[in-house]
Amino acid sequence: MDSLVTVAWLKDHLDDSNLIILDARASDPISGAVSENSSNSIKGARIFNLKTNFSEKESLYPNMVPSPEQFQEECQKLGINQNSVLVVYDALGIYWSPRVWWLFKAMGHPNIAVLDGGLPEWILHNLPLEENRKETYVIGNFTASFNSEAVVSFSAVFENTTSEMAILIDARSQGRFNGTAAEPRKGLRSGSIPKSINIPYTEVLRGSKFKSKGALAVVFNRLNNESKPVIFSCGSGVTACILLFASELVGIQNKKSVYDGSWTEWAQKVL
After folding, report:
1. pLDDT confidence tier of residue 198, bands split at 50, 70 and 90
2. Known catalytic residues?
3. What is the pLDDT, as a whole number, of residue 35?
4. How many Å apart are CA 101 and CA 82, to the nearest integer?
């Protein structure tokens, strides 16, 4: 299965016995509050609450990677098995879903895809929906196997400002990166990490879908075929995963990781 699937593909596989569809919606990128019109999901989808159940609960920073134990327990509650084929989508088209894709990859479950266009694309094609409902599933047997190299710490990023052993890409808007636009989180200054480069995540999207592979290749041309590891950052580790996912689509072979604390952590630690 490809990492990116179409609504036509998902429609044809809705009844596959080992397919699990994950609804990773949260309408507000800052608060994670679910939108008022979130009562409908793709037929058979299971609610994947990224903010509440699949982020580190005790962290000072938002959206941090949970422990393997927490991730495993919550996945098992959703009935996810080792052999499950997962497709994740969100109500914003492409926003939260690449983060979920990356989490599963980091936790040792490679058989997952993102639905291109998400719920808006599904609705556009008049495909089957159903009302959200709380369900209890048969406990799955998924076992997490965390790849620690998928995540980069503050100390490693700080060291990279002098060593430049890795390419650091920031997915925030140009204004936030340059310090000319305010951060959405109250009290957090804008600006950028030294030696980082800016590729706003919107550059890899066309509307609610990913751009073509040819167009994505142009976006990543600025890497100049360097073989250094690439670290993706943003405001809180979500849109960084959109860029990482896009780089996978075009076959960027560099070692890739996410600076999980991203600008929210950096701006509070480096004054």
Report:
1. very high
2. 234
3. 52
4. 15
